[in-house]
Amino acid sequence: MNDSLRLPRQIAAVAELRREVAAARREGRRIGLAPTMGALHEGHLSLVRASRAECNLTIVSIFVNPAQFAPGEDLDRYPRTLAADLEKLATCGTDVVAFVPGAADVYSPNHAAWIEVEGLSGVLEGEFRPTHFRGVATVVLKLFNMVAPDVAYFGQKDYQQVAVIRRMVADLDVPVEIRVCPTVRESDGLAMSSRNAYLSPDARRRATVLWKSLCLARELVASGERDAEAILGQMRDVILSAGDVEIDYVVLADADTLEPVAQIAGPTVALVAARIDKTRLIDNEVLLP
Amino acid sequence: MNDSLRLPRQIAAVAELRREVAAARREGRRIGLAPTMGALHEGHLSLVRASRAECNLTIVSIFVNPAQFAPGEDLDRYPRTLAADLEKLATCGTDVVAFVPGAADVYSPNHAAWIEVEGLSGVLEGEFRPTHFRGVATVVLKLFNMVAPDVAYFGQKDYQQVAVIRRMVADLDVPVEIRVCPTVRESDGLAMSSRNAYLSPDARRRATVLWKSLCLARELVASGERDAEAILGQMRDVILSAGDVEIDYVVLADADTLEPVAQIAGPTVALVAARIDKTRLIDNEVLLP
Hints:
2 copies of one chain form a homodimer. Helix content of chain A is 36%, strand content 21%. The first copy, chain A, has 2 domains: 9-181, Rossmann fold, CATH 3.40.50.620; 194-287, 2-Layer Sandwich (Pantoate--beta-alanine Ligase, Chain: A,domain 2), CATH 3.30.1300. The first copy, chain A, is α/β, with parallel strands linked by helices and 289 residues long. In chain A, strand 9 and strand 10 form a beta hairpin. Chain A is globular. Strand 5 of chain A pairs antiparallel with strand 5 (113-117) of chain B.
């Protein structure tokens, strides 16, 4: 860390955030929002850079949203690295504000209003985490209402999350543009994720099978294969080759509706979720974009 | 109708509405929204007048929201009186715009995102109309996002609706002020409602028992009665005296949470719902405000 870099301004209170954004808007500045749960990595920073490229003020929210964790999930041990996060944001340049609310700033004790995105929220991740996307959609709408950004930035890594948010924005007429930034990967292809910190060195090595299975799918499609089950069978073999891995799903789905396809005809996304040791990882790749 | 009054400007497309509002906001004008389903009566017009008193542009939305009607309810026969509505709005003065979207402007065929306000939506009206408030909350949030009003106006006649909307606005950080205007009544006390048009002359006469029961509750409380069941028993007697009336509920509830109270201690609201012939009517009165 370069000591000469100034840490970004940090705001905890919604009222102060609103004043900051309103002042920027009065000056005609374009506002970008990158919602995060902290434990920032290059994937997050790519969102911040994308925002800085087209906005004049970038709000990076850092909030580990309890509503998107189910009981028994990793809410308590989710990595919280605020000091390091702020230093990383400092490397992204100026006009970046960190919005770091406390849990009490976000949810009142009698919180009762939830966004339900039917259909999209119940499949894939939703089968394993039934209340996850309700928590995601709700906190994202809250952040949109707190910040009132012109543009909001999300990573393609969370493909289904993006689909849920796009649907929410369209259905509820939320006046924000959604930008999706490519998944940022480690040099061996593993998608960057704050949860990679949970992986033991051995599990970390084996975790590359997710990306390998997606590359295989891409190659098979490029070579003319269109039968989903043929592709999925080979993908599963690649993933299981890691040993001591449990597959939650391996699916080829319509890139918009996320409905599984039997034959690849139009834009299709390959989505995988697996547990390596006890760490649940997801990844995806668009085929025939 | 005075022929010299100019009808309000009428907008159907969301994009045009947004442009109109954005232009007004650039001029520093304060924007009010009065959401209605049309069939305007003095209750609605009181919202418009309240908005004109503190805003510089008033949007009156007129949209019979299918999502708040259940199958078998009165969506098809709900009164639609646009020409008369516009003439009534013309009497309210200038700076009023009627936003009259078509159903296709509001809901896409694959609409999937809904606002659920737990608790408040399930009691009272929610027991008889389980999907009603989900439809109300969703369309109101959509209208808020389309119009981006500074202030929105609702009638106290729909007391539970106001409670649901207030909860939604607070929980989802929607940047709008909610104003509640007093129920406007006919000279004999019947709360104005677009559904009063369904009443036969005989049912119309008998419908005054709702208001009479609320006045009785107010008098009993004023005279020191604090036992809810004692008050409710007498309210029911008044309503049933109309003959051929079916009570859905008569409740004394906490004015904020809408939870029934056994003893009146703090702010309490009396809420009644009954069907006279086949017309379902609701009314309410705050006791000990």
